[in-house]
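Pipeline run #58 for the internal structure catalog. This entry was flagged by the ingest filter as a single-chain record with no existing model, so it goes straight to prediction. Upstream metadata was stripped on purpose; only the residue string is passed forward. Reviewer on rotation: M.T. Logging verbosity set to normal.
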Amino acid sequence: MTQPAAQNPSAIADSSKAGDGSSVDQRTLAEIVTDLWEKTETLLRQEMRLGIAEADEKLRVLKSEAEGQLNELKVELIAKALAGGVLFAGVLSLCAALILLLSEAMMPWLAALIVGVVLSAGAFALLQRKLPKPRVLQAASNVLDTPKDTHTPRRLSNDAEH
């Protein structure tokens, strides 16, 4: 014996699929809210996992870029250190040549003293000049000098009280 459409749940479900525009749901409000809550919770968990995965990927990319730049800086530093050492040897040779040249006209100790005083005064003057910071140090200084976020939890609770 068949039941009327109003009492048969499968008939109601079939009539909602029939395309007449009326959608009848047999679930209670509590079931609907529970289902909504579970699906929202699942969606939020998936979004959090996705966000963490995206942040991890960005971190990996930034880390590899930073490692590449650090390696470039190391190579550049080594090259500049070697060039500085060769330059220093050249300057010492020029100083020795100047001392030997001056020692033709005066006593050798006096020639060495004059060259030493002149070079020391020049170095002191160079050290007194304010040189611009290299870009890397300037960028690091800018990051360290930025004001910290003043909206800490304690500060927010104090703001809420006032």
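catalog note: Confidence is low (pLDDT under 50) at residues 1-18.
catalog note: The chain has five helices and no strands.
status: ready for reviewer M.T.
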